[in-house]
Write a structure and sequence with these properties.
This protein is α+β, with helices and mostly antiparallel strands. The protein folds into two domains: about 180 residues, no CATH class; about 120 residues, no CATH class. It is built from 14 helices and eleven strands. The strands form two sheets. A six-stranded mixed β-barrel has the order 3-4-9-6-8-7. Helix 2 crosses helix 12. It is elongated, with a radius of gyration of 33 Å. The mean pLDDT is about 85.
Length: about 400
Amino acid sequence: MLIENMKMAINSLRANKLRSILTMLGIIIGIGSVISIVSLGDTMRKVFSDIYKNVGETQAFIMLSYTVDEVRSSDSFSLDDIDKLKQIFGDRLAYIDAGSQSRVDVKIGRKKQKADFSGVDYNYETVQPVNMLSGRYLNKKDVQETRNVAMLKDSTARLFFGTENAVGKTFRAEVGGENRTFQVIGVYHKDESAIQKVLTQTNDSIGEVIIPWTILAHEGDELPSLRYFGRLGMNKSEMDQLNTEIKGYFSRTKNRNPEDWQIVSLKTQMGQVDSVMGGISAAVGGIAAISLLVGGIGIMNIMLVSVTERTREIGIRKALGASTRDILIQFLTESALLSALGGLIGVLLAVGLVSLGGAIFNLQVVIKPIIIVIAVAFSAVVGVFFGLYPANRAANEDPIVALRYE
């Protein structure tokens, strides 16, 4: 019986192709909008998650709060503070340095380029792994002996020397208060999409250089902030506890109130971004779902027209023995099929649109299969719900009156 009803519904839709397509437009737009917006939200959350993952999910910075009125010389950090933190917190700290970074002019022969120099320790690779294309990573002696060595991003190597094969080449830059000649010991690569480059303000016209952090921070230097990474795999609550303990340690040693210190934690920021993106997706998705309501009303209107047009057919079927239930199921099947087809077309359009956008911006789009299943099922439910009144009206037609209808 169900197969027969499906065949009749398909024949009815084929007999009124244009009207069926126009009726499905509301469902197509509604489902397409919901799928596109939800997928866009999930994709952007993944982009932000990847960005934070690439810069270290357990990374945090501690510094004196900007709201502090009086700043004392003892508020600055020193290399000794770094050593003490390593001793006190042990393996709970996966990494710590002075968070040193500087943008300077680089001279390569007669050519000048700007570059961002990041000072890191030899074990920075454990928390920020990169794909080494050639050469090697910084080692312990490079850092301890303050060697003038550098690692270049592949795009920076091309910017400086016109080739990625830059190991062994040299360039000059004034870093750490001295005019130094650096030798390139390695070239690395980091995967970044177009969106990630925009969000992180990555610019291939600005070089990216990694050098020993001891070049940028010397014994006796006042360090305005410290950068550290919690133990790899540390969850948010563990990271929050570590932040609290570090803040408490510096409050005691530097005679400050805990609220005088500011800690910027990437795990906290990531949670805030995820919450905002989830809220935006839900809000905009709810607005787009209004299209489904409009589409459902359209289905109800067309089904009412269909019932009126097929009144004589209904009378003939009832006269031949069709029950009220048979007529009800026939029209419900037709409205559900009409809505489900609209939902399926909307899903295909949304997947195509989102995939095209992902290809353009070099993004790995996130389209959850469960969302597609729910969307198509929901569109069918919308068809059944809004088709219930027309179907019930058709089922309760008086066969005598229906047979006389012209």
